[in-house]
Amino acid sequence: MNKSLTKLHFYSAINSTEVEPFEDIAEFEYIKDSLITQQEKESLLEIFVGDVKDVFNGKFDGSDIVQYPYTHFMGLPFKYKSILEGGVRYPSYETRDLSSPMKRTGVGRELVLSHFIDDPKIDRVIFQPKKGGKLSDLIDRISNNSYWKGVDIDSAYILSCNGRAFPRHKYVMTIEFNDIHKHVLGPWTGRIHENMELWSKIKHMILNFDGDYVKLLESIVRIPV
Description:
By secondary structure, this protein is an alpha/beta fold. The protein has one domain (7-218). It has helices at residues 38-56, 71-86, 107-116, 135-143, 187-193, 196-207, 213-221; strands spanning 7-12, 24-35, 92-95, 104-105, 121-134, 155-162, 170-177. The strands form 2 sheets. The protein has a 4-stranded mixed sheet with strand order 2-5-3-4. A 3-stranded mixed sheet has the order 1-6-7, with no helix packed on it. β6 (155-162) and β7 form a beta hairpin. The radius of gyration is 17 Å and the shape is globular. The mean pLDDT is 90.
């Protein structure tokens, strides 16, 4: 593990409650610089289209900010700017455990990369529903990616969940470095989620768009932030 990393903060990815520290996690494969395929690009756009339809259906007006967070949209211009300025900070996460309450994170990064970056690549963490992984190994892999390698990292904010089927394997769904802003969506995303002025602007764009989803996506991504 990064020798300067002295503070680990453990929280539930489901409700933001603090959880007991852990080292053992489910077995995972870390795939570096994985190319986002054309088929995945189309699938990511379908997810975006579904989110837009959910806005019209009022699902983003409720209190379930884990299932329907405004940051599905609000995070896009920030991710675009961040990727242009410094590359991709974090991997995407996925578990093959059908009993896991959270199965995938990082869709927004993949959406931006696939539609606005040539030769889009991202590191991927893919969990299997069996024991064998170590948190320290995962942190080492992320802290040595092209963005974080050589950066002094003193803390990690870790969001995790457990599969519901016995033996309830542990899945890490977010790790963020050098930021301890407590939020169920993670420190970085949590701050963006609190920007209600930006959400109001994006929601107005969605409710008044002309049916061209790609054009809407581009308009949201290119909002100055």
